[in-house]
Design a protein that fits this description.
This protein has 154 residues and is mainly beta. It is built from two helices and eleven strands, in the order αβββββαββββββ. The longest helix is centred in the N-terminal third of the chain and has 10 residues.
Length: 154
């Protein structure tokens, strides 16, 4: 019976190196993803209040269920110049991202949740970037797997 419990843990992404669920989203023409475990919710982009003298990646703040949430533009962080819809906000779980408070990323589009395995990830092209987990090789595209802490490092 203990053996069946262990295999269930491995299938759910436990310590056995099983699949990881990631959320794929679009910024300009590129597709990125984040580990689903760091995401609290996805909401429609609403009215933002600009903050004077804030860093360039901070678009402003908004009230989400009584919490003041800082909204970050990851296009500024990743140096993406293309304009896009900017119609969704990925809100991070404050407990999962350290002491950055409640933050969200404004993105052009949210695509899907995918399961990826270690074999799907090419880490050789991102060896010197601790904020990029790797490039996920899909059927007809590459997806950049990023860490939300990249914003805090700017």
């Amino acid at each position: 019976m203990a053996q069946s419990e262990t295999s269930t843990e491995d299938e759910e992404g436990g310590s056995g190196g099983g699949p990881t669920q990631v959320l794929e989203f679009g910024l300009g023409d590129e597709t990125y993803c984040l580990d689903i475990d760091v995401i609290d919710e996805i909401v429609d982009a609403g009215q933002l209040t600009r903050i004077p003298n804030s860093p360039p990646q901070v678009e402003g703040v908004m009230d989400l269920r009584g919490r003041t949430t800082s909204i970050i533009n990851p296009k500024t962080v990743f140096d993406i110049e293309e304009d896009g819809e900017r119609n969704r906000i990925i809100v991070f779980d404050p407990d999962a991202i350290g002491d950055q408070g409640t933050i969200g990323w404004i993105v052009d589009e949210v695509y899907q949740v995918s399961n990826i395995t270690p074999d799907d990830v090419d880490e050789t092209t991102t060896a010197n970037d601790e904020n990029v987990h790797g490039i996920v090789k899909g059927d007809d595209k590459f997806v950049v797997w990023v860490d939300p802490d990249i914003v805090g490092d700017q």
